[in-house]
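Table S2 (continued). Query chain:
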Amino acid sequence: MTNPPIRGLHHVTATVDDAQQDFDFYTTLLGLRLVKKTVNFDNHNVYHFYYGNESGTPGTIMTTFPYKGRGVRLGEKGAGQIRTTAFSVPGASLAFWKTRLRVHGVDVRDEAPRFGDEVISFSDPSGLELELVGTRGDPRSPWATTDVNAEQAIRGIHSVAMPIAVPKRTFQLMTDVLGFAIVNEAPDRARLAVGRDAPGHVIDVIRAADAPLGVNGLGTVHHVAMAIDDPEEQLRMRAELVRWGARVTEVLDRQYFRSIYFREPGGVLFEIATVPPGFTVDETLPCLGQDLKLPPWEEPHRQAIEAVLPRLA
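Corresponding output:
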Protein backbone atom coordinates (compact mmCIF):
# COMPACT_ATOMS: atom_id res chain seq x y z
CA MET A 1 0.00 0.00 0.00
CA THR A 2 1.87 3.03 -1.27
CA ASN A 3 -0.10 5.67 0.63
CA PRO A 4 -1.54 3.99 3.72
CA PRO A 5 -4.38 5.95 5.34
CA ILE A 6 -3.06 5.05 8.80
CA ARG A 7 -0.77 7.93 9.82
CA GLY A 8 0.85 6.33 12.85
CA LEU A 9 -0.13 5.65 16.43
CA HIS A 10 -2.85 7.76 18.04
CA HIS A 11 -2.91 6.67 21.69
CA VAL A 12 -2.53 3.79 24.13
CA THR A 13 -5.24 3.12 26.73
CA ALA A 14 -4.66 1.15 29.93
CA THR A 15 -6.70 -0.11 32.88
CA VAL A 16 -5.07 1.16 36.07
CA ASP A 17 -5.65 1.24 39.81
CA ASP A 18 -5.56 4.44 41.88
CA ALA A 19 -6.47 7.74 40.18
CA GLN A 20 -4.23 9.99 42.31
CA GLN A 21 -1.20 7.71 41.98
CA ASP A 22 -1.74 7.50 38.23
CA PHE A 23 -2.11 11.26 37.86
CA ASP A 24 1.00 11.96 39.95
CA PHE A 25 3.12 9.40 38.11
CA TYR A 26 2.38 10.54 34.58
CA THR A 27 2.27 14.29 35.20
CA THR A 28 4.70 14.95 38.07
CA LEU A 29 7.25 12.18 37.54
CA LEU A 30 7.14 11.57 33.78
CA GLY A 31 6.32 15.22 33.04
CA LEU A 32 3.41 14.69 30.65
CA ARG A 33 0.55 17.16 30.43
CA LEU A 34 -2.95 16.18 31.50
CA VAL A 35 -4.73 17.30 28.34
CA LYS A 36 -8.18 15.97 29.21
CA LYS A 37 -9.97 14.90 32.37
CA THR A 38 -13.20 13.18 31.44
CA VAL A 39 -14.98 9.90 32.18
CA ASN A 40 -15.01 6.47 30.61
CA PHE A 41 -17.83 6.79 28.09
CA ASP A 42 -18.79 3.16 28.83
CA ASN A 43 -18.75 3.67 32.63
CA HIS A 44 -19.24 7.26 33.75
CA ASN A 45 -18.26 6.46 37.36
CA VAL A 46 -14.63 6.06 36.27
CA TYR A 47 -12.23 8.79 35.13
CA HIS A 48 -10.61 8.79 31.73
CA PHE A 49 -7.29 10.67 31.85
CA TYR A 50 -5.44 11.70 28.69
CA TYR A 51 -1.73 12.55 29.03
CA GLY A 52 0.41 13.94 26.21
CA ASN A 53 2.22 16.97 24.88
CA GLU A 54 0.86 20.52 24.98
CA SER A 55 -2.09 19.91 22.66
CA GLY A 56 -2.38 16.14 22.92
CA THR A 57 -1.07 15.54 19.42
CA PRO A 58 -1.96 12.05 18.13
CA GLY A 59 0.98 9.78 18.79
CA THR A 60 1.88 11.47 22.09
CA ILE A 61 -1.14 10.31 24.08
CA MET A 62 -1.29 7.81 26.95
CA THR A 63 -4.76 7.37 28.44
CA THR A 64 -5.89 5.54 31.56
CA PHE A 65 -9.05 4.29 33.26
CA PRO A 66 -8.44 4.27 37.07
CA TYR A 67 -10.70 1.45 38.34
CA LYS A 68 -9.72 1.28 42.02
CA GLY A 69 -12.64 0.16 44.17
CA ARG A 70 -14.76 -0.84 41.18
CA GLY A 71 -14.32 -4.61 41.43
CA VAL A 72 -11.89 -4.99 38.53
CA ARG A 73 -9.43 -7.85 38.96
CA LEU A 74 -5.68 -7.66 38.49
CA GLY A 75 -4.78 -8.29 34.90
CA GLU A 76 -2.61 -11.17 33.73
CA LYS A 77 0.10 -10.38 31.23
CA GLY A 78 0.45 -12.69 28.26
CA ALA A 79 -0.14 -13.17 24.57
CA GLY A 80 -2.87 -11.30 22.75
CA GLN A 81 -2.42 -7.95 24.49
CA ILE A 82 -0.04 -4.98 24.48
CA ARG A 83 2.73 -5.90 26.93
CA THR A 84 4.95 -2.81 26.79
CA THR A 85 4.38 0.85 26.01
CA ALA A 86 7.55 2.72 25.08
CA PHE A 87 8.05 6.48 25.15
CA SER A 88 10.59 8.36 23.03
CA VAL A 89 13.18 10.57 24.76
CA PRO A 90 16.43 12.12 23.51
CA GLY A 91 19.23 9.57 23.72
CA ALA A 92 21.39 11.84 25.86
CA SER A 93 18.64 12.10 28.49
CA LEU A 94 18.56 8.43 29.56
CA ALA A 95 21.05 9.00 32.40
CA PHE A 96 18.83 11.82 33.70
CA TRP A 97 15.79 9.55 33.57
CA LYS A 98 17.48 6.66 35.34
CA THR A 99 18.50 8.95 38.19
CA ARG A 100 15.11 10.68 38.37
CA LEU A 101 13.13 7.45 38.44
CA ARG A 102 15.37 5.80 41.03
CA VAL A 103 15.27 8.83 43.32
CA HIS A 104 11.48 8.40 43.32
CA GLY A 105 11.71 4.72 44.21
CA VAL A 106 11.11 3.28 40.75
CA ASP A 107 13.00 0.10 39.87
CA VAL A 108 14.77 0.88 36.57
CA ARG A 109 16.32 -1.82 34.39
CA ASP A 110 18.79 -1.43 31.54
CA GLU A 111 17.61 -3.42 28.54
CA ALA A 112 19.76 -4.67 25.68
CA PRO A 113 19.92 -2.12 22.85
CA ARG A 114 17.05 -2.64 20.42
CA PHE A 115 17.43 -1.93 16.72
CA GLY A 116 20.21 0.55 17.48
CA ASP A 117 18.53 2.41 20.35
CA GLU A 118 19.28 2.33 24.08
CA VAL A 119 16.32 1.27 26.23
CA ILE A 120 15.44 1.36 29.93
CA SER A 121 12.37 -0.30 31.43
CA PHE A 122 10.28 0.15 34.58
CA SER A 123 6.70 -0.20 35.81
CA ASP A 124 4.09 2.38 36.74
CA PRO A 125 2.21 2.21 40.09
CA SER A 126 -0.41 -0.14 38.60
CA GLY A 127 2.18 -2.52 37.14
CA LEU A 128 2.09 -1.40 33.52
CA GLU A 129 5.32 -2.26 31.74
CA LEU A 130 6.89 0.93 30.36
CA GLU A 131 10.08 1.79 28.51
CA LEU A 132 12.01 4.90 27.61
CA VAL A 133 13.79 4.62 24.27
CA GLY A 134 16.69 6.95 23.60
CA THR A 135 16.16 8.23 20.07
CA ARG A 136 17.87 10.64 17.71
CA GLY A 137 16.02 13.34 15.84
CA ASP A 138 12.46 12.88 17.11
CA PRO A 139 11.03 16.24 15.95
CA ARG A 140 7.87 16.23 18.07
CA SER A 141 7.57 19.13 20.49
CA PRO A 142 7.54 17.98 24.13
CA TRP A 143 5.67 19.31 27.13
CA ALA A 144 8.39 20.69 29.42
CA THR A 145 8.06 21.31 33.17
CA THR A 146 10.20 22.92 35.84
CA ASP A 147 11.62 19.46 36.69
CA VAL A 148 11.90 18.05 33.17
CA ASN A 149 13.19 20.49 30.58
CA ALA A 150 12.79 20.35 26.82
CA GLU A 151 16.14 18.60 26.32
CA GLN A 152 15.00 15.72 28.55
CA ALA A 153 11.23 15.57 28.09
CA ILE A 154 9.23 12.75 26.56
CA ARG A 155 8.45 13.38 22.89
CA GLY A 156 5.52 10.97 22.73
CA ILE A 157 4.81 7.30 22.27
CA HIS A 158 7.72 5.51 20.63
CA SER A 159 6.09 2.12 20.09
CA VAL A 160 4.12 -0.68 21.64
CA ALA A 161 5.10 -4.34 21.84
CA MET A 162 2.55 -7.15 21.65
CA PRO A 163 3.25 -10.87 22.19
CA ILE A 164 1.40 -12.98 19.64
CA ALA A 165 1.27 -16.78 19.77
CA VAL A 166 0.86 -17.33 16.01
CA PRO A 167 1.72 -14.06 14.25
CA LYS A 168 1.22 -15.03 10.58
CA ARG A 169 -2.33 -13.65 10.27
CA THR A 170 -1.42 -10.61 12.39
CA PHE A 171 1.31 -9.78 9.89
CA GLN A 172 -1.13 -10.23 7.00
CA LEU A 173 -3.69 -7.84 8.49
CA MET A 174 -1.12 -5.22 9.40
CA THR A 175 0.67 -5.26 6.05
CA ASP A 176 -2.15 -6.04 3.59
CA VAL A 177 -4.91 -3.89 5.10
CA LEU A 178 -3.46 -1.38 7.60
CA GLY A 179 -0.43 -0.47 5.49
CA PHE A 180 2.37 -1.44 7.89
CA ALA A 181 5.67 -2.82 6.63
CA ILE A 182 8.20 -5.00 8.41
CA VAL A 183 11.21 -2.70 8.83
CA ASN A 184 13.43 -4.72 11.17
CA GLU A 185 13.64 -8.16 12.70
CA ALA A 186 15.32 -9.90 15.62
CA PRO A 187 15.04 -13.55 16.70
CA ASP A 188 12.17 -12.83 19.09
CA ARG A 189 10.39 -9.91 17.41
CA ALA A 190 9.51 -8.12 14.20
CA ARG A 191 9.21 -4.36 13.98
CA LEU A 192 6.40 -2.99 11.81
CA ALA A 193 6.02 0.68 10.90
CA VAL A 194 3.35 2.65 9.08
CA GLY A 195 3.86 5.95 7.29
CA ARG A 196 7.55 5.93 8.11
CA ASP A 197 10.00 4.07 10.34
CA ALA A 198 10.08 6.57 13.19
CA PRO A 199 8.92 6.96 16.80
CA GLY A 200 5.14 7.11 16.99
CA HIS A 201 4.73 4.88 13.94
CA VAL A 202 5.92 1.55 15.30
CA ILE A 203 4.41 -1.69 16.61
CA ASP A 204 6.67 -4.58 17.62
CA VAL A 205 5.25 -8.09 17.32
CA ILE A 206 6.90 -10.47 19.79
CA ARG A 207 6.86 -14.12 18.83
CA ALA A 208 5.34 -15.82 21.87
CA ALA A 209 4.28 -19.34 20.91
CA ASP A 210 4.37 -20.64 24.49
CA ALA A 211 2.97 -17.62 26.33
CA PRO A 212 -0.36 -17.94 28.15
CA LEU A 213 -3.16 -15.70 26.99
CA GLY A 214 -3.26 -12.33 28.71
CA VAL A 215 -6.30 -11.25 30.69
CA ASN A 216 -7.36 -7.60 30.84
CA GLY A 217 -7.50 -6.00 34.27
CA LEU A 218 -5.64 -3.60 36.50
CA GLY A 219 -2.12 -3.06 35.23
CA THR A 220 -2.70 -4.06 31.60
CA VAL A 221 -3.17 -2.17 28.34
CA HIS A 222 -6.76 -2.23 27.10
CA HIS A 223 -6.08 -1.23 23.49
CA VAL A 224 -3.82 0.64 21.10
CA ALA A 225 -5.22 3.22 18.70
CA MET A 226 -3.93 4.22 15.27
CA ALA A 227 -4.54 7.63 13.69
CA ILE A 228 -6.43 8.32 10.47
CA ASP A 229 -6.96 11.71 8.88
CA ASP A 230 -10.74 12.08 8.77
CA PRO A 231 -14.11 10.30 9.09
CA GLU A 232 -14.31 9.55 5.35
CA GLU A 233 -10.97 7.72 5.37
CA GLN A 234 -12.10 5.92 8.52
CA LEU A 235 -15.24 4.60 6.81
CA ARG A 236 -13.21 3.41 3.83
CA MET A 237 -10.81 1.64 6.18
CA ARG A 238 -13.73 0.07 8.05
CA ALA A 239 -15.08 -1.34 4.78
CA GLU A 240 -11.64 -2.76 3.94
CA LEU A 241 -11.43 -4.43 7.36
CA VAL A 242 -14.90 -5.94 6.99
CA ARG A 243 -14.00 -7.28 3.54
CA TRP A 244 -10.86 -8.81 5.03
CA GLY A 245 -12.98 -10.60 7.64
CA ALA A 246 -12.50 -8.49 10.75
CA ARG A 247 -15.43 -7.88 13.10
CA VAL A 248 -15.48 -4.10 13.39
CA THR A 249 -17.69 -1.89 15.56
CA GLU A 250 -19.79 0.89 14.18
CA VAL A 251 -18.23 4.36 14.37
CA LEU A 252 -18.37 5.67 17.94
CA ASP A 253 -18.25 9.32 18.96
CA ARG A 254 -15.48 9.84 21.51
CA GLN A 255 -15.90 13.66 21.49
CA TYR A 256 -12.23 14.32 20.69
CA PHE A 257 -12.09 11.80 17.84
CA ARG A 258 -14.30 9.18 16.18
CA SER A 259 -13.38 5.54 16.67
CA ILE A 260 -13.81 2.03 15.35
CA TYR A 261 -12.58 -1.06 17.22
CA PHE A 262 -11.66 -4.61 16.21
CA ARG A 263 -9.41 -7.43 17.37
CA GLU A 264 -6.47 -8.42 15.24
CA PRO A 265 -6.08 -12.20 14.72
CA GLY A 266 -3.74 -12.57 17.71
CA GLY A 267 -6.31 -11.07 20.08
CA VAL A 268 -5.07 -7.48 20.61
CA LEU A 269 -7.80 -4.83 20.58
CA PHE A 270 -7.05 -2.23 17.90
CA GLU A 271 -8.74 1.13 17.50
CA ILE A 272 -8.63 3.47 14.52
CA ALA A 273 -9.25 7.06 15.65
CA THR A 274 -9.62 10.23 13.61
CA VAL A 275 -7.21 13.11 14.09
CA PRO A 276 -9.97 15.77 14.32
CA PRO A 277 -11.57 17.41 16.18
CA GLY A 278 -8.90 17.22 18.92
CA PHE A 279 -8.82 18.24 22.57
CA THR A 280 -9.49 21.96 22.12
CA VAL A 281 -13.06 21.28 21.00
CA ASP A 282 -14.32 21.98 24.55
CA GLU A 283 -11.36 23.75 26.24
CA THR A 284 -8.86 26.35 25.12
CA LEU A 285 -5.24 25.25 24.73
CA PRO A 286 -3.98 26.96 27.93
CA CYS A 287 -6.78 25.38 29.97
CA LEU A 288 -6.60 21.77 28.76
CA GLY A 289 -7.12 19.23 31.53
CA GLN A 290 -8.20 21.70 34.19
CA ASP A 291 -11.91 20.90 34.43
CA LEU A 292 -13.91 17.69 34.35
CA LYS A 293 -15.32 17.60 30.83
CA LEU A 294 -18.38 15.46 30.11
CA PRO A 295 -19.96 14.58 26.78
CA PRO A 296 -23.34 16.25 26.21
CA TRP A 297 -25.30 13.09 27.01
CA GLU A 298 -23.67 12.90 30.46
CA GLU A 299 -24.11 16.56 31.46
CA PRO A 300 -27.55 15.91 33.06
CA HIS A 301 -25.77 13.45 35.41
CA ARG A 302 -22.84 15.73 36.33
CA GLN A 303 -23.73 16.11 40.00
CA ALA A 304 -24.06 12.36 40.53
CA ILE A 305 -20.88 11.65 38.57
CA GLU A 306 -18.80 14.18 40.49
CA ALA A 307 -20.11 12.75 43.77
CA VAL A 308 -18.56 9.32 43.12
CA LEU A 309 -15.32 10.25 41.35
CA PRO A 310 -12.29 10.49 43.68
CA ARG A 311 -11.04 14.01 44.29
CA LEU A 312 -7.60 14.77 42.87
CA ALA A 313 -5.05 16.79 44.80
